[in-house]
Structure formats: C-alpha cells, structure tokens
Amino acid sequence: MRKRPTQDRAQRTVEAIFKATAQIVDKEGLEALSTNKIAAKAGFSVGTLYQYFASREAVLEAMIDSERQRVIDEIHGILRDVVEGRIAPREALRLRIRALISAFGTGDRLSRAIVRMAWRMDFTDAVLQAQRESAEHIAIVWSQIGREGMRPLTPATLFVGTRAVMGAIRSASLENSPLLGTRDFEDELVHLVWGLTRP
User: Which of 38, 45, 99, 106 counts the most CB atoms within 10 A of its CB?
Assistant: First the structure.
C-alpha cells in the first residue's frame, strides 16, 4: 500500500475498495478487474484509489494480506490456549483446521471470491512467508507443551503437515468441492495431522 489508513475515514475507504474488488472478481472474473472499475464500483475517483494503491495487483495483494493476518491472529489465539492449558492439543488442532477451512474455503461469498483469487494468483512471497511463520509458531508451541507420547516435530514433519492441510483446502476451494464445510473433511485433516504427531 502507498498509504496506510490511520483514521476511520481512510479505513472505510480501503474497506470499500476491498469490497468493490471482491464483488467485481466474483461477478466478472479476475480478468475484468481494473483500477477504474474498482474506483467506480466503490464510489470514488480513481485518484482516490491511487492514493492507497499503485495498481489492481497492489489492491489484490493487500486484500489477501489482510485476510491472512486475520487468520494468523485467530490461530495464534488457539495456540496460546494450548500453552496456557485451556484446551488440549488435539482440540486445538481441530480448531486450527476449522479456522483454516472457514477462512480459505467456506467463508461468505465475498470472502470466497478473495480466497479463490489468491489461490489463482498462486503463491506470493507473503503467502510463503506466512506458511513458514505458521510452522515456526507451531514448533515453538509444541516445544512448550511437551506432551508425553508425541514425537518431536522435525522441520520435515512441520513442512508436510502445514502444506498438506493447505493443499487439501486449496484444491477443495478451487474445485468447489461439496466436501468443504463438512465434518468428514475436517475429520480427515485432523486425523492426517494428528497421525504425524504419533511415534
């Protein structure tokens, strides 16, 4: 972003730009997106949009980064609950997977448009960095809880577990799979990752 919104009015402007972008992508597809269309749909001049974003790609990246940060904050809260003993590790795993499915697979229509757009743009440096940070955070939490009967998490285990979950959600999202949002899909992902923790 060229300018970070610090006041309520600026924040509302950015949110209107995000909403307009998602609506255009959802109805017309990514190829129809332009800064002029986004500005018109949001009810602003294109000059207002350019105060915050240099291009349509910059808008898309900011939208994706905003959603990614929201999910990371939610997942960190779940992991904190494990460390502080409020929830068991397996329940935390289920809640984490549920949060990922909700964020990246089954959210409301506009959220799904943003996520599918991110999947189609493939992996940006920010997305790859987020996956690395997520794996590192899990490793730190794992070392703190030290549960008996669980194997230590190696870098390979973390890599396989985090990428397997996101890969399955990505495929289900892009394929519009009827499995998304079902207990069976969630159960299989929990079973997959939990199996990696057993000796």
Answer: 38
Tell me the pTM. 0.66
Counting the structural domains of the chain, the total is 2
Residues counted in the chain: 199
DSSP state of 178: T
End-to-end CA distance of the chain: 46
Residues 153 and 76 in one domain: yes
CA–CA separation, 166 and 163 (whole Å): 5
pLDDT in tens, the chain (199 residues): 556 666 778 889 999 999 898 888 878 877 888 999 999 999 999 999 999 999 988 998 888 778 778 878 888 888 888 888 888 888 888 888 888 888 777 766 556 666 666 666 655 566 666 667 777 767 776 666 656 667 777 888 888 888 888 888 888 887 888 998 899 999 999 898 888 887 7
Give the Cα separation of 21 and 17 in Å (integer).
Answer: 6
